[in-house]
Design brief:
Helices cover about 35% and strands about 15% of the residues. It contains 9 helices and 8 strands. The chain has an 8-stranded mixed beta sheet, sandwiched between helices.
């Protein structure tokens, strides 16, 4: 982590606007590739993206992963290696959609695409779906979780969700924006204000579909959240899980000491990344496979 900080901290807060898309994808593409995973481009529910598949998969089960990038950056192709590790550990197919990005496509375009892709998986014959997401994708994953659960169709309720350092409060009022401002090697509040503004446009950031923290969290399926202790989004995770538990949801947050935002991309290098992936894989397997539930 010390070596990583020495590389990234000089550029803290500099990823801004659509010009950051190429360097951001370059960063995510450097994740160590997992063994035994194949990748295929496809379109699900009218949304293009990439499949990550291990050599053996369990039929009917699927992971839908919504990638990060502050709603403005990121691509399914760049996240293939990271989610490929999850597919390898679960033996479950994973699909990463290329949802529309801001500022060209502001809220709720990304969430609409996520919902369309989710419905498309059931049209493909999948009947057990877990939703995962990281950072801004974690925001979308938790928003989609609420939408799909409120639909009250037993055939289309997600079995569970995993959010990695999710953005849950687009008003950016979490205390960690101050208490972790120095510890976070990546983001500045002014940077986040600009990126969130380009995504939300003139919409109310307190809309529960934009900020999952503001929503009704009752009756949601089990949720697991992982976050680093050294990131400005720490309180977004802590407050969301606190509210979910208070609403009676099986929810848990693991806070990883000394870890910064996106630490899971250190799989193969960081022990915390490897352990987190194993915990996520165990949870998803337990939720997706009826015999283990």
């Amino acid at each position: 982590m010390i070596a990583m900080r020495a590389i990234v901290e000089p550029n803290k807060g500099r990823l801004q606007g659509i010009a950051a898309r190429e360097p951001y994808d370059a960063i995510m593409s450097r994740v160590i590739a997992p063994a035994g995973i194949t990748y295929d481009a496809d379109t699900v529910g009218g949304v293009s993206g990439w499949w990550c598949r291990s050599e053996t998969v369990r039929p009917g089960e699927v992971i839908l992963h919504l990638h990060g990038g502050w709603f403005n950056w990121g691509s399914a192709q760049a996240f293939r290696n990271l989610i490929g590790h999850l597919a390898a550990r679960t033996n479950v197919e994973a699909f990463i959609p290329d949802y529309r990005l801001a500022p060209e496509h502001p809220f709720p375009a990304a969430l609409d695409d996520a919902h369309a892709c989710y419905a498309g998986l059931f049209d493909r014959g999948f009947h057990r779906v877990a939703i995962t997401g990281d950072s801004a994708g974690g925001c979308l994953a938790l928003g989609l979780l609420s939408i799909a659960t409120r639909a009250k169709s037993n055939q289309s309720v997600p079995v569970g969700a995993v959010a990695l350092s999710p953005v849950t409060d687009l008003t950016l009022t979490g205390a960690s924006w101050e208490t972790r401002a120095a510890a976070d090697p990546y983001f500045l509040r002014a940077q986040a204000v600009e990126l969130v503004g380009s995504y939300i446009g003139g919409h109310d950031p307190r809309d529960p579909l934009a900020s999952p923290l503001c929503g009704d969290l009752s009756d949601l399926p089990p949720i697991r959240v992982h976050v680093g202790d050294d990131e400005v989004l720490l309180d977004d995770s802590l407050r969301y899980v606190e509210r979910a538990v208070a609403a009676g949801v099986d929810a848990r947050v693991d806070v990883w000491e000394g870890m910064a935002h996106g630490f899971l991309s250190g799989v193969g290098t960081l022990a915390a990344s490897n352990e987190t992936l194993e915990m996520i894989a165990t949870f998803l397997t337990d939720r997706l496979t009826p015999a283990r539930r």
